[in-house]
Amino acid sequence: MLQQEDxxxxxxxxxxxxxxxxxxGAGVSAESGxxxxxxxxxxxWQRFDAQALATPEAFRADPALVWGWYExxxxxxxxxxxxxxxxxxxxxxxxxxxxxxxxxNVDDLHERAGSKAPVHLHGSxxxxxxxxxxxxxxxxxxxxxxxxxxxRLPPPRCARCxxxxxxxxxxxxxxxxxDALASAVEAAASCDLLLxxxxxxLVHPAAELPHVAVRTGAAVIQVNPRATPLDEVAEVNLxxxxxxxxxxxxxx
Length: 252
What we know:
Elements: H1 4-16, E1 20-24, H2 26-30, H3 50-53, H4 56-61, H5 63-79, H6 84-95, E2 100-103, H7 109-113, E3 119-120, E4 123-130, E5 165-169, H8 178-190, E6 193-197, H9 209-215, E7 219-224, E8 236-239, H10 242-250
Parallel strand pairs: 1-2, 1-6, 2-3, 6-7, 7-8
Antiparallel strand pairs: 4-5
């Protein structure tokens, strides 16, 4: 059960903060029913490890398999709805101008909840691009008849060079987008409060951002149902689901 003393301390830190950064991870989207990389795969992909499908090598070896998996994931996101945690984040942004939202999630649930310009550290399912020339490509309409167990689906071709269109996400072995990472580090280094919500604290370099904030004098509040490596740097640890705790903390 959430300790009222911890909630009171977190509320006081938030009330005093002038420059707020919110870092969200997979746990926030999972509460909307979006599968995480830790969930067991089903259907067509049950014989694969999720990480084995999320690499440039996998896409080159079998583009239809990888594109089909990501379109299945995107369809699942389109069917999901923002939860109270997403709405609370958007409310906090509206109340505290200058708040920076950094997300490790590749869905658009923050945007649909009202967040204006999240920094997507790991890219987006809604920003496909050419695997050859990098040209942005239109996001395909989410198919209404996407089978529950998934399907192989050949990726579209680039209008500029006829190369294969790939998902606009950061795959294992790839660097994070330079601009997004620079914006995230700058925000963490200049804030006085960082909220780490639903993130495991294991995926780098995102996991370094709370440490950056602490080194420059900021307080860290962590919202997570379980302990993570960020416990040691968090001034307050609020244990529980983000969809319940953030509305209490933010007052939505």
